[in-house]
Amino acid sequence: MAKTKTQKTKFTKHALVDREARIVWIATEIGYGNLVDTIQIYDVDRGYRKVELYETGVAVIRSNKTNAVITMFLPSPTQLKGWYGAEGSVPIHLLTMAKLNKKRGWTENL
After folding, report:
1. pLDDT tens digits, residue range 5-20?
2. Cα–Cα distance for residue pair 11/48, rounded to 1 Å
């Protein structure tokens, strides 16, 4: 029988200390589903980051250098449009989930 390699997820101190409750809530109450898209974003203060976007609308922000999870949240439609450059560029499923999550009151006020 072949051995299965387990991949451990690394978290930054910020994720473990400042965002622990949110990450636990997302992981236990919302879930992730399948990965829909991965994009690179640039922040003047923080540099490049990788954003993994999942079918439930969850955005997982990772360090570009270490791949460690920095934070995760449910982005608003406005945040997605900013990342993609225009509403028409956002995958329709992600935009639909962001609108639904906003209606539920779950999105960040960005």
Report:
1. 667 889 999 999 999 9
2. 17
pLDDT tens column, 21-80: 999 999 999 999 999 999 999 988 888 999 999 999 999 999 999 999 999 999 999 999
Number of residues assigned to the chain: 110
Residue for token digits 């003047």? 44
**Which strand ranges, in their side-by-side order, compose the sheet holding 47-54?**
35-43, 47-54, 59-63, 69-73
Instruction: Give how far the C-alpha of residue 38 lies from the chain's centroid of Cα atoms, to the nearest Å.
Output: 9
| Whole-number Cα distances in Å, 49 to 16, 61, 90 | 18, 7, 18
